[in-house]
Protein 1
Amino acid sequence: MKYDILFYLSKKTGYCEKRVKKAFEKIDFDIRTVNSSVTPVNLGEQVCDSLKYCNVVVIIGGLYLNDDDNLSVVLSRVMSSSGLTLSNMRKLNCDNQNGYIIRYKNQVILALPDNPKAVESMLSDELLNYIKNIYSDKQDLKYSENN
């Protein structure tokens, strides 16, 4: 299975990329591409492109901006225009930082902060197994909303 990494207005790209790759190796997922964007429009285009080729897209950065470029604001717009609801999204927490997992049918978007330690923590074995099980015949592992 393939996944993409998209950096959005982030600075610690190399460190975060290493943490994501190490985590996804545990579940035998391979990286397809790594890209970056600096505008919400470009990010939207890249997410759409990635979802044509991969079922998992990891977005890193942009969660702590104080304007309309904030990734949470961008994701809210995407959700409202696509008909997704809060039932499709779960919050991920680590050391007072938030990330998100958005699932729609067999596709997953992970939005993670630009913090290597938080990325590593949020990509827990439980979350990785949940993602892996989406693409297997086993659906017995449920991802907890309390993470």
Protein 2
Amino acid sequence: MRILGIDPGFAITGYSIIEYIGNKFKLLSSGAIKTDAGVSFPLRLSKIFTDLNAIIDEFNPDAISVEELFFNNNAKTAINVAQARGVILVVGCQRNIPTFEYTPLQVKQAVVGYGRADKIQVQKMVKTILKVEKLPKLDDITDSMAIAICHAHSSRFAQKI
């Protein structure tokens, strides 16, 4: 199964493509869709839409996994991130790719085994699971890897039920 993991944002949307076959993971690609702060918000959303479609064209994922919105104290930021998430969900729907949403707690539970794990613990497990020497500098990219791993573990469990 090829999974596109996405950590949504309107300034930076982290993404990664992992392959999960048997019980083995392979990182195929990862990166970030970055939008400029000086550009109008609709154009920023349009860039996310266009770049995400290009990623899907290149890697043809079987599933998309997206982190659910973590609502912090800044309502304006949360609303903007929610709009970016909406774009991501629409792309999945238009492309007929099953799209799954996971809370940060579910991601941590699936990757570390503990829903209250800290960022360092998650990063160490992502590095170990994907057998990569070095993680990207942007946390958004590493988070997208964790989200993809979460779906791989969750889908395997769902298949057994």
